[in-house]
Amino acid sequence: MPDRVVDLHTHSLASDGTDSPAALVRKAAAKGLAAIALTDHDSMDGLDEAAAEAVRSGIAFVRGIELAVQDGPAELHILGLFMPQPSERMRAALEILRQSRRVRNQAMLDMLAALGMPMSMAEVRAHSGKGAVGRPHIALAMKSRGYVPSRKDAFARYIGWKGAAFVPRTLFSPAEGIRLLRDEGATVVLAHPCLSANMTASRLDGILAKFRGYGLQALEAYHSAHDPEAVRLCVELARKHSLLLTGGSDYHGANKEGVELGSGAGRLRVPYALLEKLREFRGRDAPKAL
Ligand code: AMP
Ligand code: ZN
Ligand code: FE
Ligand code: FE
Domain limits of the chain? Predict the structure, then answer.
């Protein structure tokens, strides 16, 4: 079947998506996708449920995670694909991230209250699932209180990078994040490098040279926010730095309008062959896992 497609970047209720892990997998199967990876932010809580549903639905499943890392002033995202069950060290790392989210979320709520927009943490949690809680959930709570007309407005005025109630959170460095995932046995991917408007070819070239040294193995060339030029740049630089290619929609359900499973913003098409290449590479490089 030559045109089978996959989606190797999605989010569920275990972070800031709106579908349960099982519903997400059923949706992917109903769309005829050959495989799906679940890559929730800072959370592996949805993976077992999704994996069990994938067996029932007859679709290949890749256990994943997405972590943010701090590269100087910039936040970049990495994906771990083919994650095994979390080690004790991984569990501890996820707990550190969760704790830092709690502290940061409370600090943002304090600042919003000082700006005349009081909300409780319970209210914010009511807009999240049971995994990682973050700004998208604060934005939803603000909207339902009527403090902002839209989630977009919440980010633009208050909780986005330049917003009045923005509080940064402590992130792993790229070396730490990549090492953590590699030590688990994952295949490590730089996610959506061209999502940020100020990414340039020479900057990405430098990032890839550096991250390759830390253990990066693949580049997410295909993504809902990548235009054809971004895809071309990624493919070229992946070749230059001997990185594998991956792709995914970054589907968040109703929390990200205009992004569908598999097809992304409309023109995404990630061929099954990319997943086969990743597996082939793992067979050579990491015979222990999958
Ligand atoms: P957090 O992990 O709590 O820092 O929240 C980051 C998430 O917020 C991202 O993964 C996006 O889903 C969302 N986000 C960040 N900036 C914006 C924005 N300007 N508009 C809408 N959503 C955003
Ligand atoms: Zn997200
Ligand atoms: Fe991301
Ligand atoms: Fe994502």
Answer: 5-93+185-289
- For residue 246, what pLDDT is reported? 98
- Do 111 and 233 touch, CB atoms closer than 8 A? no
Query: Which position has the token pair 């990032």?
Result: 207
For residue 152 and ligand 1, the question of a CB distance below 6 A is answered with yes
45-85 confidence digits (pLDDT tens): 999 999 999 999 999 999 999 999 999 999 999 999 999 99
Determine the distance separating the centroid of ligand 4 and the alpha carbon of 130, expressed in angstroms.
17
Domain boundaries 5-93+185-289, CATH class = alpha beta
Q: What pairs with residue 7 in β-bridges?
A: 36
* Mean pLDDT, residues 187-208 taken together: 96
Crossing angle for the helix pair 21-30 and 47-57, to the nearest 10 degrees: 30
Whole-number pLDDT of residue 286? 53
